[in-house]
Amino acid sequence: MPSLNAHANTPDSSVAVPSQDAVYQLRIYEIFETNKVAFHQRFRDHAMRIMARHGFDIIALWEAKTHQRTEFVYVIRWPDADTMRQGWKNLMADQEWSAIKEKSAAEHGAMVGEIQEKVMALTDYSLIPAGLPRP
């Protein structure tokens, strides 16, 4: 699993991933029951719009629960790993996104705990859901 820059929550540029082929990025955020409604509102109403502005192609989003925690899980399709890294860099530098995160943290406290990430490439024999382009 690629490591993340702990402060920016962005993929570590030292991680080796294919740079020529489309990649899918799996992101798993620990979210908290005490403010998960606010988290979902922020992601739906702001993050998705701002991410789209920076080239994020979000395929699907889920909420998962274990007996230990609640997770927000989503998959992003990128044309290549370099575009993925640049997209995250641009998002973390986005002043509107920074202001929204700061305001929501002041109102609701920390909204995300641990973040896990995997950068994935489809196998040549993978079944693909209708409408999902093959890299």
From TrEMBL:
Region forming the signal peptide: none
NIPSNAP domain segment(s): 24-126
Transmembrane segments: none
InterPro entries from the UniProt entry: Dimeric_a/b-barrel (IPR011008), NIPSNAP (IPR012577)
Family matches, as Pfam families: NIPSNAP
SUPFAM superfamilies: Dimeric alpha+beta barrel (SSF54909)
Xref: Gene3D superfamilies: 3.30.70.100
Protein name: NIPSNAP family protein
Organism: Pseudomonas pergaminensis
